Protein 1
Amino acid sequence: MNRKLCVLLSVLILCVAGLAGCGSSGSSTSDSVSSSDGTLSKSEWVGMLGDKFGYDEYESTEDIFSDVSSSNSYYDQIQACAEWSILPETSQFQPDDSATWQYAIETSVRAIGIDKLNNSDVGVTVTEDNLVDFFTAYIANVDDSSLSLGLSETDAELILGYAYDYGMNLTLVEKVEYTYNEDVYETDANSITLDSDGVTATITDGSSYTEGDIIYVEPSEENAAYAIKVNSVNGDEITYETAGMEDVYEELQITGTFEGTVINVESAEGIEVSMAPGTPEQSFANVSYNENGGISATGVKVSGNSVTYTYNKDQVTFTAAVSDIKVTTDLDYGILSGLKKADVTVSFDDKISLEYTADHFGKTIPLGSVEVVLGSTPLTLELSLAVNIGMDGEASLVYTSTVVANVNYQKGSGLGKSVSNNDATCDFNAQVTVTAEPTIKAELRCFGRGIANVKVTSGVVAIATIDIDYLGDEPMCIDLYLYVPLRWAANEDGCIMTSISSKLKASKTVWDSETSQITMRFHWEDLVLVDACTRGTGEEIETDTVDEDGDPYDEYKLFDFEEIVFGIIKVTTQKVTLSVGESAVVGVLSLPDGYSTSDLVYSSDNTSVCTVSGTTVSAVGTGNTQIRISTSDGKFSASMAVVVTEEYIDTSGFNPL
């Protein structure tokens, strides 16, 4: 199809759809779920259960059940659910027996997790003896007479939908318990000042430390918790290196649901930061300072628990926003036992809006990262954002959804992982073809070290086909097929989990052009929306969801998108103030995977204010400028603001003793 043959189309589409199988969460419903004589076997039920909750990875090298071999179509799910203690059977599973309502309800509650339920604010103790009672009282109402009946696929989807939605929306009671190692000392951010070089610091509260001490700096609304190990002491000056979980804690247990507090925003090159009044300057990277020391307000806006990135070039204007960030975690770590368990659920609202007019455009645009502190814990959540934008013709859209992603590890079991995309809405106006796919990576971290991460790609893809009768008198037909993609990857980037086992990573395409559960189709004749095509049989000509090779429509191939690889250069400070003649060293905290500090290139935007040699910045004249730190290939960059003031000259005549 020649997409440039399209004519201007102005039709407003409003579609509101949700993830099939999701019911009301957090409360019981008065409507009984209807039962029927079902045909699902236990194997089939456990296959559906494992797929829904993400239990399809296992660690065992042997068959757990003597009557279930690897030839069983649902072997992976049965093995994984057995390892997670979801199945009550021991030596034999009896895979061909019918699955009853009672069996399905009890295993679905175990899939949520009995310990997790008892750590929540449900207000009731869940045991093996009251699984059904709990389900019917708190998740969905079921007639007792249905419990012994067989299970249909429709019944199974309802039970799973209610249970999954309830589990992903649990609120856990906050609990932080820990045992420090020896020579660990607590302090706050006001008691220590880290220099820009990343290796020296000044103790400002008079505390005394010795070589080998670990200083733990508590989190606040302005900074995440961090820990350093003292290497040398000279009065109030120390040298240090970064400390990790194993340096600070002998044991650490953190459970709870936390409302995220944004403390730091880093933007990609070309997307500057806009700071709300009263926001601490140190919370932002790539901040531009004008001649009067003011802030250049373009690009990123932060308001409470919401971050919005704005992009306006290449004939594209779009905003991408993340808000209502919540993290539910159940973490248990020991210095001798390592990571015993880590159950992490991240939820957030995402929104993208765009305007575009051109013939053909396809680009992967990195936006930046957002650091979120989780209450008084040493944990942080880092969200990294990028977006695929592809256009043919003219388009505008506003897309919103709620994403819930879960990564669940328990020692001795496989990896549980799932992603849902709920309450998706799209206000769409397009001429032909558009792809707008925000991709967000969420990583749970402790002292800068990743524990687990999940990457989610969603958004909107609209495919159009045009049928024009050039020589006849038939109307021009345009068919549009709109769908919401959903792809995810768990622990794609290295973290504590992948250091335990390479099996603790996975990826999956949940929805593509053929399988998306959120779809719309439209047909126009001579730019008029109609119910059915009048050409030929009078039936609507449906847009083909496969390409010319018969493969599912691939927006990556059409728009030449690169696979999104997240990475950012993090420096020790976002702003340094110097007097003329002074110098400072730029310290780098972290780099994208595959790069070393030897790959970095440093430059000054204004050499009349400051110069840079290697990692050393020297102030030569008053003013404000930026130091740019980039990888040698130019793919990643960061900046540090430099403010240079006049050299202080004492004219008081006072002579110190």
Protein 2
Amino acid sequence: MLKQFWGYLEPRYRRQAILTPVFILAEVVMEVLIPLQMAKVINLGVNLGDINAVLVHGGAMVVMALLSLVFGVLAAKTSVNASVGFAKNIRQALFHKVQDFSFANVDRFSTASLVTRLTTDVTNMQTAFMMCIRMLVRSPVMLIGATFMAAYISPKLALIFLVVIPVLGGLLGVIAAKTFPRFQVMLAKYDALNARVQENLTAIRVVKAFVREDYEIEKFDASADDVRAAMVRSEKLLVWNGPVMQFCMYGCMIAISWFGGKLIIGGSMQIGDLMSFISYVSQILMSLMMLSMIFVMLVMSRASASRISEVLNETLDLTDDNVTEDVPVKDGSIVFEHVDFSYSKDKDVLNLSDINFSIASGETIGIIGGTGSAKSTLVQLIPRLYDVLDGRILVGGRDVREYKLDTLRRQVAMVLQKNVLFSGTIRENLLWGDENATQEQVEEACRAAQAHDFIKSFPDGYETELGQGGVNVSGGQKQRLCIARALLAHPKIIILDDSTSAVDTATDSKIRAALHEKLAGTTTIIIAQRITSVMDADRIIVLDDGKIDAIGTHEQLLQSNAIYREVYESQQKGVA
């Protein structure tokens, strides 16, 4: 795992990461030498009344303190640069990996969990990395240096450390082993909390419409309490860290004061040496306190690192690595040959079963079926958002698995059931279809999608800022903007997945007429609940429980298919 993360240090950040321990080492050397000069000031200057010794060794202490300050500032600067760069690269790697995820990969990680990993977990890694290149270097070096100098001053008193430090290390190791799994549980609870917040904010209009604020507050409070309980459970072990360390070290201080006093009375130790020795004890205590903080951070970051590695090491379900030649899509013809599909990849639980049909380039196909009949699942296989379990799908005469993913998807424009707009202006959202489109082309697409008039009704027109997810436009307006965005892509295949369900029948009719004119030569697949939306299609596919029940024109299906006739008659009664 360490080798994997080391790769995210660019050469410039790696230099900063290497320079930090060098500056820290220089800083610690200065700090360790200061108490030795203090002992000389007391023993040679104060006790013997030698003012020259006070000036010389006191001046040396001032110089060492200034140098220590300079090295400390440099270490802080380089460590911040290195850790921030390290975190940036990990966050970029995570985001890039998620962009390559198939729908199946995304399904394995909740959106809230991915957000937590990109934010909280990366921040934990950043903090841990900075502490490692600073405090994890400073603490052991100071511990060793101070212990060595203490042994140099009084080997007998230094024996106390040899007893206490191994005991302390063993106790901290036990605490770490017991705490790690608890932090993993705590981070999982964070995922659940983020999911609750995200769901509530995304659907805030629904919450208010149904007056469910109290219910949502209860659910949030329960999730927040779960996080609190998990943190308390983790901290119950970690809280022993400080008291155990301080008990051991203050025990050392008492023992040193007792035995050191005896040595001074016996004449085998000078007062300056004991004061210097106590200063080194303070440095050792400070080092162990820093190690204690690092210890806590490393336990937390280890859990975060494992969660980040899960995403980075996730095997992609869909890749085009085996495609050596970037072949363009010749036309919009589509062929399904004995296609089976299962979200669970279980042949005994099929969502689509033995699907066979062909669509000529430029043909308009309607798809009708009840809820759960796998209409959306069927069309998502065409741009290879999922892979088939058995059989194959041909687009432009080639298996979709023989195309580069970008090449295939650029020729298959989709307007999904759930219409998504992004923060930014209306124009910026429309340019997702073609970033080089002119204003004339943008307006032409919007007129075809019956969106131009309502866009111009806004004070800022096409430069109107959309809220996150397009919250300041209606459902019907959002659908029309998404259709215009798809039209700007000039695809060979366009898929409209129930994309006019939120508009009135008159507007739906106008959109269909405009699309028929504008998409001449483009293969069009229309999924709809309303028969009127597909009755003019060249052919209509009737799906039932993941299987094709019938294929034909509107007139043919009225005569021969019970499902289609039943839907048509029920809708006609509704109109009547």
